[in-house]
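Handout, page 2. Input:
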Amino acid sequence: MTIIVLLFLALFPLQVIQANTLTVDRQGNGGSSVVTPSGKDSAVSGLLRCHFEDQSRSGVSGTAEGKSFKNQLGRFYAARQYQPVWTEQRMIVELLQAVEGVSGDGLNPDDYHIGRLRRLFDNSSRTPAELVRDDLLMTDAFLTLACHLRFGKVDPERIDPDWNLDGSTRRTALEYRLQRSITSGRIKDVLDELRPRHPEYAQLKKGLARYRAIAKAGNWQRIPDGVTIRAGIRDSRIPLLRKRLRESGDLSAAVVDTSNVYSAVMVEAIKRFQKRNGLEVDGIAGTVTVQQLNISASERVDQIRLNLERYRWFISDVSPTYVLVNIPEFSLQYIENGNIRWSTRVIVGKPYRKTPVFKADMQYIVFNPQWVIPPTILAKDALPAIRKNRSYLDRKRLQVIDSKGRVVNPESINWSQYTGSNFPYRLQQSAGDHGALGRIKFMMPNKHIIYLHDTPTKDLFEKSSRTLSSGCIRVENPLNLAELVLQDSVKWSRSAIESAIATGKTRTVYLPRRIPVFLLYLTAVAGGDSVLFRQDIYQRDSRLLKALDTPVPAYKIEGCGI
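Output:
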């Protein structure tokens, strides 16, 4: 969110208001003039009113995002009749402490005027103009920090236009809540309450502090390249590898060993590291594992920071029961009453057919689904393959269906004249174990035509990296998921589900209530007392990190007619 730092400076000769233009940077520096009206409090209130009324007359400039925040700041002061906010030292101290603590959330205190806030205590005698400047600055810091803790600093739609969690209503409610907190003087408490209270967020914060400490101490030493290290091998890099595993907590510090032998204890430590980092768990320190070991603690700090930001986008808005698919982790979790009840492995979209990030409601299940080839696969895969060799239809067990639902002889079609955009038929695959959708699919209507489904290629779940689909989510244990979402252990027990599938008939069953499904992209998540890191399979992390680290821009304002 664009941040306003509004400073107003005025002179009052002969009761005539004269304004100057100020440009203030994010550290709170700016031009200065002296105002010495009678009645400092009334002068401050008058300057505040003058500033916002002039802004209203002249119109608010800037981006839509910036205008929204300017309007919020204006509403905030109007609701309190333009009285200054920060009149109690205790409130200022709580704000300063809150700003100093945001680095623990992966945010930058400089975005909330930390330098200027610290200097406030060195200037007890201030003019009305200075008081207005400081009051606006602190209110800006308070509102901005509140919004960042509640919704994130970076607008997720800037990073991904598919993001569809609308926060407008919640932001309006936040304004009222912040106004009440000012009235009651609850600065620290309300900011703590706005911070995500989910245990995974708290665990990531602990991980951030831990990796920062390692980075501050100089990071860990790189493991040189060399031969693949297997059980029993002797290698001069083993002591260095042992030290590295201890530093990351994968090898107990109690293990006493100074040899160059890759022992069974170290094999298990490497397995723990591999599992924690989403690698193939084989206990072998090969090229890929060593590359992951050599990612510095400083880089992991940034990875945790940007994922804390992703958590702020959604975690405070989840319902007690929902399905979460984490794309880089290739995982699906069924969350019930806030706790993980069940999880399984999934297959997600290829890097050139990425699974989008969005939220939708699961509404119904289809047993023995017939697969109709979607437009993207039709244009890019099926039609080119059919033009090359008509046997593609038989191999995939596809029928050609016209607009009236009749089966068409493929030999009667001139395939060369059709593309994905003008193809008048649909290619439909019959239900069965051979089908691309397997025996069950979970429908959550959305513009992307993305859904969860079974698959006949069960062996692919054994791969550590599973970017293998055309965008939809293949679920390893779909019948377990069906039992959970149907929420009826009598009518839809496991045996009843299997019986429905065994008929071979296509059947649609609606859920007793819709279940939110979140398709998310998290490359660092909490795992017990550890942080689990995942590969940035769609190369999204760097863009978010750049946006997160971009300073909130300075803002120039002209007040009272200038």
